[in-house]
Amino acid sequence: MNNPAEIRNIALLRLDEAQCLFANGKFDGAYYLAGYALELTFKAKICECLNVDDFFKRHVPNSALSSVYLSHNLDRLLLLSGLYTHYENDKLTNSQLMNAWSCVVKWNEKTRYQLPNTYSNCDAQDLITSVNTLIQWIRTH
């Protein structure tokens, strides 16, 4: 079962794995997994909003919600999570939040196909830090 708590735990595990990769100089993998950690965190929040107890089992191909389950688009997931208005309000007084979002929206699932050494130490560190900031922010709502 992939209830919100389990999805959040998987997200934190992916973020921990990203940090391990980063510590071992595997910046492309760290960048990739950090983005997935945020995606999963949003999907846990969507699961809560929709009162769905098993997010991934409820996926029915070609259903109206199919695009939610398959989406990797962080802008879309922010909107669907019910946090968009909170983000719009909070970013006005929280520059760290706004900067974190500016960093993470550059991520997409296609990073897994990038050539080796596409992402630098700084790219991976910035994304990991930004994902941490956003996960903490999501927890407050």
Q: How many structural domains can be distinguished in the coordinates?
A: 1
CATH superfamily: Nucleotidyltransferases  domain 2
Number of strands: 0
Figure out the total of helices: 7
Major beta sheet summary: none
Quickly give the structural class: mainly alpha
List the helices and strands and how they pair.
Blueprint: H1 4-23, H2 27-50, H3 66-70, H4 74-80, H5 84-90, H6 95-104, H7 121-139
Helix pairs in contact: 1-2, 1-7, 2-4, 2-7, 6-7
Report on this structure:
- Helices cover 65% and strands 0% of the residues.
- With 141 residues, the protein is an all-alpha fold.
- It has one domain: Four Helix Bundle (Hemerythrin (Met), subunit A), CATH 1.20.120.
- The protein is globular and about 40 Å long.
- 35% of the residues are buried.
What are the salient characteristics of this protein?
141 residues, mainly alpha, Four Helix Bundle (Hemerythrin (Met), subunit A), 7 helices, 65% helix, globular
Summed up, what is this model?
65% of the residues lie in helices and 0% in strands. The protein has 141 residues and is mainly alpha-helical.
